[in-house]
Amino acid sequence: MNRSEQAQSEASDRLSGKTHGAPEAYVRVSPSHGDDSSTKDVRRSNPWKRQLLAGLDAVPLTTKLVACTIVLLMIGTVGISLTIRQLVGDYLLDRMDEQLRDQAPLVYSNVDYLSSRDNSEANIGFNDYFMQFRDVDNHIISTPLVPVLRNSVVSEPVLPASGSMDGVKLGEPFTTTAKVRTVANASGADKRTIEMANAPWRVLALEGKERGPDGTNVTKLIVYIGVSMGDQIDLIQKLTQYSVFVSIIIVVLGAIVATFIIQRTLLPLKRIEKTAAKIAAGDLSQRVPPAPENTEVGSLAASLNSMLARIESSFQEQEETTEKMKRFVSDASHELRTPLATIHGYSELYTMQRDLPGALERADESIAHIEASSSRMTLLVEDLLSLARLDEGRGIDLTQDVNLDQLLEDAVDDLHALDPNRMIQQGRLAIAGSENPKVPGRLMFVDGRLPQVRLKGDISRLRQVITNIVGNIHRYTPSDSPVEVGLEKMSASISPQSLQRKPAASQSLHHFLEAVEVARSTQAGVDYAVFTFIDHGPGVPVERQSQIFERFYTADPSRARLKGGTGLGMSIAQSVVRAHHGFIAAGTTQEGGGLTLTVILPISPLD
Questions:
Q1: What string of DSSP letters covers 493-523?
Q2: pLDDT tens digit string along 467-484?
Q3: Has residue 19 been placed in a domain?
Q4: Which residue range is the domain that position 554 belongs to?
Q5: 0.70 surpassed by pTM
């Protein structure tokens, strides 16, 4: 084996791990009894691992992405450069082997002519060949061709010793190192020449024949023909330098472009971060800047904005609930304090006057006032308990069958009993269109019989809603003013959940009527029961119509106290209707003034 193959073998052994006499990199040690050194080593490594992970977590995301991009570009460029170097080297080596095989006969046949020429003369490259003749026993006969470089530097391939093949096979090219020498009295060679002279050689051993002078005797020879690999190595080195230069440019440009793109891409996240900081400071009205929803950042921004809207809505509802609760406690305290003061005052009055003449008559009067105040307080407490249960979602059953037209007929009879002189009409409801397309339609009462409408709900609670409405008509309208009660079944393209969340305002009723028109045109919608109580009393100003559903609100406190009102009836009605996933609103009566209360209930309960 020549030195080149030996070096290659040693390099292969080193790569495969076959280093003679070298200890193994890892040695498995069986722990003795009571020895947990391996566990201790793992424990000692954990803090370093945790510290490394903590350090990586502290690196900004932009830096991580840019670093990963640079690493990937470096790996890619290095891999491509090495692949190109290997492919070009293999290609040039194959071409050199073909060159040796193709030109060996030509060089061999013209060896006398080539050996007589000066190496400085150009002869299509043939002067660069090395040739040596050996006999069949591999003894050196002659070396007719030896290339001479500039400054008389001679470079020869290192061949097997005379008389030995040293593993060389005929017809198979092999690579060997160079042996450099200088001709006597030669001047010093330059660096370029020395590098070319030290380049390895590609050598091919062939079997040749040499005829004697008479042309009859044939002598078998072994011919070694070789060519220097200096040009090939120089080309590969230049290609490598060019690849490294291009790779550096690619990595630098890639880092610049990646930094710009990553920063541009993460800019919405920076905005989200700033928005989150403002929200954390208490400004819930802030929203994340929108982006195209087909992107990840856009989808995230849309989800965050939806979440922020719900959080803001919930926070506002909580504030409103807290404010209502404070006002409710204050109003309840005030309302309860009045009958308690009355009871306390008449009790003291009776105590002071019980020994005076006529004490018995005055005692009866005091007891009557005390009884009236206690009754009012009892009614107020019952209404407060009812509201508390409804707020908690208790005390209501939505699975009962309710004949709504029968409940309304019973309410009409009750109102007749309270106000015998009042004219009450029953009928159906229709939607009256408007000549102006910008003005929405309205509900119109049509005299006739109440249609039969059945739904699922709590019959006792719905009766309480109708009773409270009838009670308000009895308290706040003249006893001889007319009342119309209408009922109809309608389909609307709006869900009960959306209807339930709408405020108790006439505009919400207009939205429902528009949904009814849409359902008529599309033949698809949810079935609702709609009933109205239309009075022609003094009415309520438009700006105060939504307040009648607030707790302890009374349009005329003197008349409410005179006829037993607590100011909680319409609040209870609204809570019951919303518990049925419905909607209640107040509006101004179109003909003759007054107040119109409209209640909308889904026919079937929600699953």
A1: SS-HHHHHHS-SSHHHHHHHHHHHHHHHHHT
A2: 989 988 998 888 889 999
A3: no
A4: 396-602
A5: no
